[in-house]
Amino acid sequence: MRRVLRSGGLLLLAFHVGDELWGQAVSLDFHLFCADAVVGALRRAGFEVEKIVERDPYPNVEAQTRRGYILAS
């Protein structure tokens, strides 16, 4: 992503936070990440992290996993 991002451009990531679902370890076709792991990967790739936000899921609306959003440049 860093290689193709325009100079001065921003990267916004959104992801589910955690490593289990409904109290059980999961094996699905997607991955849950801890924000620290994503931030570390972005920094190693040369990004500067501008903002990190995590939120709880909306009850009865979406899958009950936390969400993470990271803005980087």
Q: What does it look like?
A:
The structure is a single chain. This protein is of the alpha+beta class and 73 residues long. Helix content is 14%, strand content 34%. Strand 2 (20-21) and strand 3 form a beta hairpin. The radius of gyration is 14 Å and the shape is elongated.
Class based on secondary structure composition and strand pairing: alpha+beta
- Secondary structure tally: strands: 5
Number of distinct helices = 1
Question: How much is the radius of gyration in Å?
Answer: 14 Å
User: How does the major sheet shape up?
Assistant: 3 strands, antiparallel
Mean residue pLDDT? 86
Beta-strand content? 25-35%
Cα distance spanning the termini: 11 Å
- Measured as a percent range, the helix fraction is 10-25%
| Largest beta sheet: strand ordering | 1-5-4
Shape call: elongated
Order of helices and strands: EEEHEE
* Low-pLDDT regions: none
Provide tags for this entry:
two-stranded antiparallel sheet; 73 residues; alpha+beta; elongated
